[in-house]
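We treat protein structure as text, and this decision shapes the records that our systems exchange. Below, we set out a record of this kind in full and without editing:

***
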Amino acid sequence: MSKRTAFVAALALGLTFLVGSSNGFAQPASTTPAAPAAPDASGHVQLNADTAVTTGLTDKYANGDLNVALGECLPAGTPAGGPSPASTTFSSPVLTFSGYTFLPTIGVAANVTANATLKPGTKAGSYPLVMNCAGKTYRATFTVTKPAPQVRKVPMGAPYTGGGGTAE
């Protein structure tokens, strides 16, 4: 037997083994684990969003800055990137919301936004943020930190840098 014949025979046996009948490789249906249910991708909610310049903002109340509640609500039949229903609302025990916009945003997957203002007297801690849209409720948790104390007096002895217009 030549080397070529031996090679072809070995190749044929190998292919027969690999291809085989589908019954030899099929698994019984009872031992195949069920695929996990897909998460509801029709919506989500968050407070603030990270930007290209500032990170660490998502789900944190930014003291002394503009805060925005962002949500994505896609009722059945609404194409991705479409507007949110005008009945969509945000709620939280420590925030008030104003200036709702029901259009898609750029850079964040959201199609409803509202300005969020912290209620006076709110203490540092974790709080819920809830969005109700199209009969569904979406929840997130955000944190409020104690604001840094403001400087009450300008420090003495700061260097005088001049007006800048007389620099040579």
Q: What stands out?
A: The chain has a mean pLDDT of 76. The first strand starts at residue 43 and ends at 47. The two ends are 96 Å apart (CA to CA).
